[in-house]
Amino acid sequence: LVYQGHSVSTGSYDTSTGLWTISSLGVSATATLTLQSKVSIKSVSQAAFDLGPAKNFNIFAIEDLTQPSADSEGKVAVGRNAYFANYSLGDLLPASGGTEDVLIVGNNLQFISGLVTGGNVVYGGVSNLPIDQVSVIDGTVRKDSVMNFIAAGAYLRSLAASLSTYQTTGTITFQNSGIQCSGTNPFLNVFNISGNRLSSCTNFMVSVPNGSVVLINVDSANVKWSGDVIINGTAHSNVLYNFHDALDLYISHIDVRGSILAPKAHLEFPSGVINGQVIVREMYGSGQFNCAPDQTNYFNGTLPVTRDILNSAEVMELDQNDPDTTDNYAEVNLTLAGYGDPGQTGNVNWQPAQPSGLTDMVWVTLYENSNSILAGTWGGKILRSTDSGENWNRINPDMNVAYIWDIEVTGNNIFASTELGVYRSTNNGSTWSATNLTGKDVRALTLKNGVVYAGTWGEGVFKSTDNGTSWSQVSAGLGNAAVTAMLTAANGDLYAGTFNTGLYKSVDNGATWIKTSMTYPFIWSLGQSANGKIYAGTYGGGVFRSINNGANWYSINNGLAATHIYSITTDPQNHVFVSGWGQGVYSLTSGVMDSQDDNWNYMGMGGIEVSAVVINPTNGALLAFTSNGGIYVNNSPVTSIGVKGESEVPGTYSLSQNYPNPFNPSTVIRFAIPVAGNVDLKVYNSLGEKVADLVDGFTEAGSHTVQFDASRLPSGIYFYRLVSGSFVETKRMVLIK
Question: Which CATH architecture has domain 654-735?
Answer without folding.
Answer: Sandwich (2.60)
